[in-house]
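Onboarding guide, step 5: your first structure request.
Type a short instruction followed by the sequence, for example:

Predict the 3D structure of this protein.
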Amino acid sequence: MPAAVLGLLSAIVYGSADFFGGVAARRIGPVRTTAVGAISGLLLLLLALPLAGGVWSAAALGWGALSGLVGSIAVGLLYACLALGPMSILSPLTALVSALVPMAWGLLGGDRFGVLGYIALGMALVAVVLVGFVPEKGAVRPSLRALLMAVGAGAMIGVFLILLDQTPSDSGVVPLIANRAVNGAVMWSVVALLVLRSRRRAATGPRLDARGSGIAVAAGALDASANLLILLGLRLGDLTTMSVLVALYPAGTILLAAIVLRERVAPVQWAGLVLAVVAAALLSVA
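The system replies with structure tokens like these:
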């Protein structure tokens, strides 16, 4: 399967994970959602280990663990900037930066394309902005703090892709297992701190419940599946192509929201989806 197809597929799965994560976060909170998802994702990867295999090495574990730490920072910054808003500006900005950082790294590292390939990359970047656009009535200009957080979140997502690209080719899913283990340790530590803080202040907040936790489990499994597709795409293709296509992850979110929640997809987002498919098709033959 061409790397471009894997990139587009991983974006859809990744976006679907965000959709389920968003639904779960409304019930049990974003931190608990991420923590539960880290565990379900880790279990899925452990089950996949006998089939996918992989050589356990210091490099595989090191790069994987570092990507898990960076991923935790990325999620924290992403939630923080979107909470400040407006999402219509910050969401596409985050997605664009998450594509530009590894794309620049890949091109500096030797990724090369023909004229058609560079045209396709440009189309994909435009599609990232269009797909990530979230229409908001009366949206205000974002604060400098929100903009910096959005850029930081996008940069960390980009660094996450760069780190995955550094993993040994024979490591299989081992880096992703290390990634999930570190991510889970970080997020559950945060959950523990929040619980202690709430008890001291006698505060109440979102609690774990069966339905919310179940949705979070699904989100974690989808997120781990997306990471597996990304890793496979990086092994078969190049970082530059994968980075711009993975940044189209809002596509999966808006499509599921349209199907499940009957949310309206803006014309500009439909245009971005069409442009993304065309760009992926061109990248697969470039």
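Each response can be followed by summary notes, for example: The mean pLDDT is 88.
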